[in-house]
Amino acid sequence: MQPLAKNIWINGELTAWENATVHVMSHALHYGTSVFEGIRVYDTPNGPCGFRLTDHVRRLFDSARIYHFPMPYAEDELVQACKDVVRAEGLRSAYLRPLAFLGECGMGVSPSPEAIRSDVMISAFAWGAYLGEEALEKGVDACISSWNRVAPNTVPAGAKAGGNYLSSYLIGREARVRGFGEGIALGADGLLSEGAGENLFIVKDGVLMTPPAAASILQGITRDSVMKLARGLGYEAREQVLPREALYVADEVFMTGTAAEITPVRSIDGIMTRAGGPGPVTKAVNKAFRGLFDGATPDRFGWLEPIGEA
Ligand code: PMP
C-alpha cells in the first residue's frame, strides 16, 4: 500500500509505515472485530484543531463497550495520542483514524475472556473531499440501495465497528456500479436510514429532518453539529421517521459525515430535488460549519480542540 503517512502509532509507539503490520491470523481480519473513528483536523486561525476530537474518542470507547472489547488506554490518553500523531506528521489539516482491534486472540469466533486483548493504532494523513470536490459544490447523484441496513438487534448500527462496513461496502459499491455517486439505505422496516458512510438530511418548507437513532443509523457527530448549527441559525431541526418518498418531494437533501462533511444531494434515483443542487438551507448550514474553521462562526460549543504546533 502506498504510504499515507511516515509513521503510525501502535500500542503507544510511533512505528514506521512499512513496519506497521499485523499477523494474517488476526481475529479482526477474520471476523471484523474492530472499532474505529474518523476525525478531521482543520487548519484554523488558532492553529490546527481537532473537530470534536474528545466526542469522537468517547464514541470509540462506546463502540468498544458495546462489544466488550478491553481498551488498554484511558480516553484522555487517546485524545492526547491523536494530537501527538498529527504533530509528529507535521500536518496542519488531517484525517485521523484511531482503531482498536482484536489481534492475536487465537482462532475461533469467541476467544476466552482471558485471551482477549485489543491492539490500538492511530494514523493521521491528508484526505480531501470524500465524495469528490464536484459533489461538494454541485451535489451528488444518489440512489436508494437494494441493500437494507442491518436490522435492530442484529449487528448494532450504533457502534462504529469494522464489520458494519460490509453493509456500507455493498451499498456504496452497488451505487457506483449503477453510475451513482452514493447509495442511501432503507432500514429493515423500509423507512429511510442513512448513506453508506453518511447521515441523511431532508429539508422541507425550511425544516431540517433526519432519521432517528432507531433507524439503524450511526449517530453522527457531524449530524449533531449540523442540528445545533441549524437551530442557532433559527431553523427547526428534528429527528423524524421518514418514508423513502420523502426524498423525492424534498426541497433539499444533503448528507453529513466527518469525511463527507456537508455534501448536497442533487438527485435521488434520477429525480432532481426541488433545489437541484445545494439549496439555500444547505448553503446556510454549510457556511456556518465552514465558518467554524476560518473563524467566521464563533465556536460556541467548544468543538475546536487545539492540536498544538509541530
Ligand atoms: N453513518 C455511517 C455509516 C458512517 O460511516 C459515518 C461516518 N463516520 C456517519 C454516519 C457520519 O458520522 P460522523 O458525522 O460522526 O462522521
TrEMBL record:
<dbReference type="InterPro" id="IPR001544">
    <property type="entry name" value="Aminotrans_IV"/>
</dbReference>
<dbReference type="InterPro" id="IPR050571">
    <property type="entry name" value="Class-IV_PLP-Dep_Aminotrnsfr"/>
</dbReference>
<dbReference type="InterPro" id="IPR043132">
    <property type="entry name" value="BCAT-like_C"/>
</dbReference>
<dbReference type="InterPro" id="IPR033939">
    <property type="entry name" value="BCAT_family"/>
</dbReference>
<dbReference type="GO" id="GO:0009098">
    <property type="term" value="P:L-leucine biosynthetic process"/>
</dbReference>
<keyword id="KW-0808">Transferase</keyword>
<dbReference type="InterPro" id="IPR005785">
    <property type="entry name" value="B_amino_transI"/>
</dbReference>
<comment type="similarity">
    <text>Belongs to the class-IV pyridoxal-phosphate-dependent aminotransferase family.</text>
</comment>
<comment type="function">
    <text>Acts on leucine, isoleucine and valine.</text>
</comment>
<dbReference type="GO" id="GO:0009099">
    <property type="term" value="P:L-valine biosynthetic process"/>
</dbReference>
<dbReference type="GO" id="GO:0052654">
    <property type="term" value="F:L-leucine-2-oxoglutarate transaminase activity"/>
</dbReference>
<dbReference type="InterPro" id="IPR018300">
    <property type="entry name" value="Aminotrans_IV_CS"/>
</dbReference>
<dbReference type="InterPro" id="IPR036038">
    <property type="entry name" value="Aminotransferase-like"/>
</dbReference>
<dbReference type="GO" id="GO:0052655">
    <property type="term" value="F:L-valine-2-oxoglutarate transaminase activity"/>
</dbReference>
<dbReference type="GO" id="GO:0052656">
    <property type="term" value="F:L-isoleucine-2-oxoglutarate transaminase activity"/>
</dbReference>
<keyword id="KW-0100">Branched-chain amino acid biosynthesis</keyword>
<dbReference type="GO" id="GO:0005829">
    <property type="term" value="C:cytosol"/>
</dbReference>
<dbReference type="GO" id="GO:0009097">
    <property type="term" value="P:isoleucine biosynthetic process"/>
</dbReference>
<comment type="pathway">
    <text>Amino-acid biosynthesis; L-isoleucine biosynthesis; L-isoleucine from 2-oxobutanoate: step 4/4.</text>
</comment>
<dbReference type="Pfam" id="PF01063">
    <property type="entry name" value="Aminotran_4"/>
</dbReference>
<comment type="pathway">
    <text>Amino-acid biosynthesis; L-leucine biosynthesis; L-leucine from 3-methyl-2-oxobutanoate: step 4/4.</text>
</comment>
<keyword id="KW-0028">Amino-acid biosynthesis</keyword>
<keyword id="KW-0032">Aminotransferase</keyword>
<dbReference type="InterPro" id="IPR043131">
    <property type="entry name" value="BCAT-like_N"/>
</dbReference>
<keyword id="KW-0663">Pyridoxal phosphate</keyword>
<dbReference type="GO" id="GO:0006532">
    <property type="term" value="P:aspartate biosynthetic process"/>
</dbReference>
<protein>
    <recommendedName>
        <fullName>Branched-chain-amino-acid aminotransferase</fullName>
        <ecNumber>2.6.1.42</ecNumber>
    </recommendedName>
</protein>
